[in-house]
Amino acid sequence: MRVAVLGSAGAMGSYFVEYFRRLGHTVVGSDVRPGGPRLRASANTSNLGAVRRADLVLLAVPIGDTLRVAMEIKPVLKHGCTLVEITSIKGTTLTQLEKVASACGAPLLSLHPMFGPSSRSKAPRMLVVGRSRDLEAARRIFRGAELTLVAPEEHDRLVAYALSLVHLTSMAFAMAVAKGPGLKTFQKSAPPFASTQLDLVKAVLLQGPELYSYIDIKNRSVVDALSSIIAELSALRAVIEKKDSRAFDKKFSRLVRQFRQSDLEASLARVYAEP
User: Fold this and answer.
1) Is the dihedral of CA 193, 198, 204, 209 positive or negative?
2) Cα–chain-centroid distance for residue 116?
3) Is residue 34 over pLDDT 60?
4) Given 119, 150, 181, which residue is the final one in a domain?
5) Left, alpha or beta for 182 (phi > 0: left; psi -120 to 50: alpha)?
6) 86-98, pLDDT tens digit by residue?
7) Mean pLDDT across the stretch 158-181?
8) Within this chain, do residues 144 and 29 fall inside the same structural domain, yes or no?
9) Nearest by Cα to 130 from 148, 157, 104
10) What does the alpha-carbon distance between residue 235 and residue 223 come to, in Å, rounded to a whole number?
């Protein structure tokens, strides 16, 4: 199979270049960044050149450019070619991409990679956004991947909790610490739990604001997720202000019951593991 990866020099693009090469496919890459595609993908100077004769086209361009690039390659997208998009927010963009693909007779496969940009896992974890037929198509193409089916109407809501809530609570935690003891003082004296939380903050900050601001601001479900956690924090604050140990124990125990004991113990061991 001939695979075109658009945005092949980026983190996700280069991952999928390597992934498809391992599966034995011919990979053609295109990227506007200096140096062009990495990982020995055959280079093309344009998206149109990369897409011609491709059996599968994967859009690994910045989220805001996805629809524009899809419209750009529409004239050369051959009938029967599978168009794969991997945006973190689907919203109305997915509907528009479906129209582009349908007009070309090209089936659209909507995925969301659930791994970091530096991952080199040979078995990527991804959400398949669609119906059962889309999951079957993804299994045929992405052999060995760990795939989970999510309905289109549920995707952005799930992402609001799985990504945005983590981003935003990490930022809020760091800003509160900065205004309290200060980040430098906190880092020097932090016990294992606090160090683990701080590591998460650092990992979030390392990614830069451009991607996260798009994911967190453009997703309409994020406000609801934030409202939910603000309500939970307010409830906990009320319990603490009243010094109500019974209410605190009840909330704590209710959460414990939602996890397996073995999972709790494994997490505790990871937090206290020696570096």
Assistant:
1) positive
2) 7
3) no
4) 150
5) left
6) 999 998 899 999 9
7) 96
8) yes
9) 148
10) 18
Domain count, the chain: 2
Contacts of 121 (CB under 8 A, 6+ apart): 115
Which range of residues forms the domain containing residue 136?
2-150
What's the CA gap between 192 and 164, in Å, rounded? 24
Q: Examine the domain organization and report whether 112 and 50 are in the same domain.
A: yes
The dihedral built from the CA positions of residue 148, 151, 152 and 156, taken in this order, carries a sign that is: negative
